[in-house]
Design a protein that fits this description.
mainly alpha; two-stranded antiparallel sheet; 23 helices
Length: about 500
């Protein structure tokens, strides 16, 4: 089957299928709002109520609809689609089964090794983290069932990207207004606390810059989301060749995506986030590793030119005080933490050094303290339980609710080497194999999944991406199956 036939919108699976429905609108709303916690932030800032989790008001209907769709499939095609999706998900299903198995040994391990002595705390984290990831996995399945045509996938991706573009532009607007009027139009709101925080500022080149957060919860979240946007921009020229749009407002977005790469780089710089800088570096490393699989339509040379121009312009502007400029940037970049990380190679030093975040230091401390536990994993909530006492000590707090923002750390803490192996099988089956058809959509999604293993991941975004990937591959497999049946029947006529 040729590449173009994979993206044929006249497929029998798309015919007589309306685009817009309640389920599709729910998916679109989830794609636009969930990554940023927009409504949680708005309610917390307006009414001072931090307990509301609006994200779950969207997720609960998704779960209810998923149960209904699976129990009462409306057609034979939907039954086939459910079967294909669960086939694609089989490595993840094995990971869940293994995680449930090793969770049974977690309490006795933690108590016998004097990690935590409180059973209520142990089982609380097991229940909270386990239910969270199982629910997010269900959201992935729901999205994969609803995005059942190329039209829906294209519209969903465009709305997701539109949300990223809006967040990017609002971040720049936030910085401009702050520099002129010293007013922060979008202060940081901690949805887990009952107060409005003053957004942090950074002294750079004698100016007091705001660490922009836009509609995201904090600067590091915005910076990583913009790195995701950069990956979309990198491959957007290839994407619109496979998914051209006749809608005027989508065409304007296409133009913005192809010409605004420097804006994304500037946004990441203005977050002054080491996580964002590391994510950007990781993204370019991934591009170099998979260079031969990049479609010919991608704007590789143009992006390099953009990047070189931005660097040259910065050097010209900073030339009079280049040394102080470099020193000032290093003080607010990821290199500050990297340079201090190994000042003292002792476990206790991780508790008191300021070179690592508590969540990062907790993983290093736990891994060095119990390396064998990470070979087989300890099940749901393992990271939170292992990091509990460390984070309490780090923050000098009486209680703590540690969680890792990194998919790799969560996976290896919960499932060990078994989970990593099964995760690779899932990735190979669903993303890596399809690199060879030079599909820009597969390469974008594949890069986003890989990147989430190395950076501070936005967990709901990770599972949304998994859902989109499953929907794409289920369509391809179903189209391939129908094509083979049609060819066989045609040959039998002769």
């Amino acid at each position: 089957m040729s590449q173009s036939s994979y993206f044929n919108n006249s497929s029998c699976f798309n015919r007589a299928s309306k685009i817009w429905s309640f389920d599709f609108l729910l998916c679109i709303f989830l794609l636009i709002s969930a990554p940023y916690q927009i409504f949680d932030t708005a309610v917390a800032a307006t009414f001072g109520v931090a307990q509301l989790q609006f994200e779950w008001l969207l997720i609960i209907p998704c779960i209810l609809r998923l149960v209904y769709i699976i129990l009462f499939p409306s057609s034979r095609i939907r039954i086939q689609r459910i079967r294909v999706i669960f086939y694609l998900l089989s490595p993840i299903i094995l990971i869940i089964a293994y995680t449930l198995l090793v969770t049974t040994i977690q309490p006795s391990f933690l108590i016998s090794n004097s990690v935590i002595q409180d059973n209520s705390t142990i089982y609380s984290f097991i229940l909270k983290r386990g239910s969270k990831y199982l629910v997010y996995m269900a959201v992935s399945i729901y999205i994969s069932l609803i995005l059942k045509s190329w039209e829906r996938i294209d519209i969903a991706i465009r709305f997701f990207v539109l949300g990223l573009c809006i967040a990017e532009l609002l971040g720049l607007t936030q910085e401009i207004i702050y520099l002129i009027f010293k007013i922060n139009i979008i202060p940081i709101v901690r949805t887990t606390r009952n107060f409005l925080e003053v957004s942090p500022t950074v002294n750079f080149l004698g100016l007091n810059f705001l660490r922009i957060n836009s509609i995201a919860s904090e600067p590091k979240v915005l910076s990583v989301l913009v790195v995701f946007l950069i990956l979309f921009k990198f491959f957007w020229s290839s994407y619109i060749v496979q998914f051209p749009s006749q809608k005027i407002w989508f065409s304007k977005m296409d133009y913005y995506m192809k010409t605004s790469f420097p804006i994304s780089v500037l946004t990441i710089i203005l977050t002054f986030s080491g996580s964002g800088q590391f994510a950007l570096l990781s993204a370019f490393v991934l591009i170099l590793i998979f260079y031969k699989h990049i479609p010919t339509h991608s704007r590789l040379n143009q992006l390099y030119i953009y990047l070189i121009c931005v660097i040259c312009l910065a050097l010209i502007l900073l030339l009079p005080s280049i040394y102080s400029a470099i020193q000032s940037f290093l003080d607010v970049s990821i290199l500050r933490r990297a340079g201090k990380l190994f000042d003292k190679l002792t476990l206790d030093s991780l508790l008191y050094t300021t070179s690592t975040d508590a969540e990062d230091g907790a993983f290093i401390y736990s891994f060095l303290s119990h390396p064998l536990a990470f070979s087989h994993g300890l099940g749901f909530g393992a990271y939170s339980n292992l990091a509990y006492e460390f984070v309490k000590t780090k923050y000098d707090a009486t209680i703590a609710s540690p969680f890792s923002r990194n998919i790799f750390i969560e996976l290896v803490s919960s499932t060990g080497l078994v989970g990593l192996f099964l995760g690779f099988i899932f990735f190979k089956r669903n993303a890596l194999n399809f690199f060879y058809i030079k599909s820009s959509i597969h390469i974008i999604i594949g890069f986003l999944i890989l990147l989430n293993f190395f950076v501070r991941a936005n967990v709901i975004v990770f599972f949304i991406i998994i859902g989109i990937l499953l929907s794409i591959n289920s369509i391809i497999l179903l189209q391939s199956k129908v094509t083979n049946i049609y060819i066989n029947k045609s040959l039998n006529l002769y």
